[in-house]
Amino acid sequence: MRYLPLVFIPVLALADGPKDNVADDVRPIPPVGVEVPAADAEALKKGLSELRAAIDAAVKAQAKNPKLADLLPDVEVFYKAVDWALKYKEIHKVTEVKSAQEALAEGKLRAEQLKNGQSPWTTQKGLVVRGYRSKIDGSVQPYGMVIPESYSGAPTRLDVWCHGRGETLSELGFIDQRRKQTGNVAPANAMVIHPYGRYCCANKFAGEIDLLEAMAHAKKFYTIDEDRVIMRGFSMGGAAAWQFGVNYTDKWCAVSPGAGFAETPEFLKVFQTEDVSKIPAYEKTLWHWYNATDSAVNLFNAPTIAYSGEIDKQKQAADIMEKYLKEEGIDMIHIIGPQTAHKLHPDSLIEIERRLAEISAVGRDRNPSEIYFTTWFLRYHQMHWITVNGLTKSWECARVHAKITGAKEVTVDTENVTALSIDMQPGQCPFSVREVPTVKIDGKALTVNKPLSDRSWTVHLRKQNGQWAQVETALEAGKLSKHHGLSGPIDDAFMDSFLYVKPTGTALNEKAGAWCKAEMERASFEWRRQFRGDAPAKADKDITDADIAANNLILWGDPQSNSVLAKVIAKLPIQWSKDKLVVNGKTYDAATHAPVLVYPNPLNPSRYVVINSSFTYREYDYLNNARQVAKLPDWAVVDLTQPKTTRAPGGIPDAGFFDDAWQWSKAK
């Protein structure tokens, strides 16, 4: 596009660089805050006590209110923001004391309103702080809404805006922004949702689910036009927009990332000047999870507009996506701010808004006639009316090209796929309800069931003895397989409800027991710091059937110290006694080695058990968001004779992935 006069719009960011490539000298994230004057601290503690009492009174008064569960987090986020900022020394400048006082006042006002059966903030226009309770860990998480004056309850466009990197962006700081700042985008007659994203993880893992949960909560109060939801962000938020863009493409009317990063290895070379050549092969494999470049073809399914400043080092993100899209036959629109560094150029923003308004006027195509979809594991398994249910081999590229090719014909071409479903929702199937359709899949024509009277159409297909056939169900009953929600790796278990199971018995070996205890304590500490929730935990002897049904169980300890682990160890693919640990056919000294792994729970195969691990990236990786990717696969052995580091829980003599039947992978 033509170059336009230069004006800067500030964006929240914190520069990284080669200074953060030293694993032995890692600065704390979040950093320690300032010392709060004693009088102010006492006043805030008094205000917290008053707010807690007001919340308790509201809960008591509205105990029978069916909306209480959805309204209470709107009040509790203010308590949490001030409580955590004070308790964990996360007030980073003295001016935030005033922000804390304002948050307490807003919380008290809402608590009193809720006590009286009122919730006027749910119909408020302009800037609104909202909150929801997460299914992952039960924590309350904030998000912001910008509601236009024109909103009348009719279906309305929604723009998602993911924020930039902010190492001091506590809940208090985020809520203060969302109470006072419209933000970088404010499209006419559109709502904007600002996810907190679980702090500073580039909206990955629990931060990824944060957006989905925040949107689900928002839909209970606002009429969002599902066909006009636009994914946007800048800097770290631009990285989020790229990954949401390729991994959830069919949710968006358009995708518009700015700056950020689109993948890990090349970005770290360019932006951090970091040598990634010695990274283990399994870790490189795990890059596929969030490398948008590896799933670039998915953007065939949504209009995409990228932005970069001309002299911004993070222009690398759009440049590399442009390259990968070109390889897929797609020419990417890349709007460039002239002579602009890490900023949004205002005239470029005008051009972006013009294009997005035109795309929004058309809206999302809910039922496209042609779909391209690629995935690397089944955390991401769906694109419009195609759902992939099984892979030949996870972590190798799987592709589907599906197209309506006739009045009653669909043609599907696949790579590395063993099972899929065609699932068109009511009103979406274009075929006659009287005629029998044909599905041509990988060259084989199958006569399948007709659409139903509501114009819905579901067909399950699976390879049997190497040949495609129609089957009754998406998954084979009683057969252990990797599928959505049960695909590994370890970090996948922390994207749904989980429960730490603490050992109460005596460890098999003192050194290993001490390591497990220290890792469990670290896991709780880091979950709070990095994902902004208290990790749910119970003693092994207190675990109930309801706990097993509802949660991924994170089992700390060993088969002697943890009674739940003792119940399942015989059905896990390892052997573990006082003397030896056998993993993947190799024997280790159990006194100096420990396993970490994820596996379907033998007590509830629809959920995971995880042994001795939380999320797998560590302190070194907090320094740059492109490093915040899974660091261990489905299983690993930890050598306790080697010290823990900011990158690993000890030495890793072996690690790998189970195959797609949850068995040991055969050596190549």
Automatic annotation (TrEMBL):
Ranges that cross the membrane: none
Gene Ontology biological process terms in this record: proteolysis
GO molecular function, one term: serine-type peptidase activity
SUPFAM superfamilies assigned to the protein according to its UniProt record, in alphabetical order: alpha/beta-Hydrolases
Keywords: Signal
Ranges of residues in domain Peptidase S9 prolyl oligopeptidase catalytic: 210-344
Protein name per its UniProtKB record: Peptidase S9 prolyl oligopeptidase catalytic domain-containing protein
Lineage: Bacteria, Pseudomonadati, Verrucomicrobiota, Verrucomicrobiia, Verrucomicrobiales
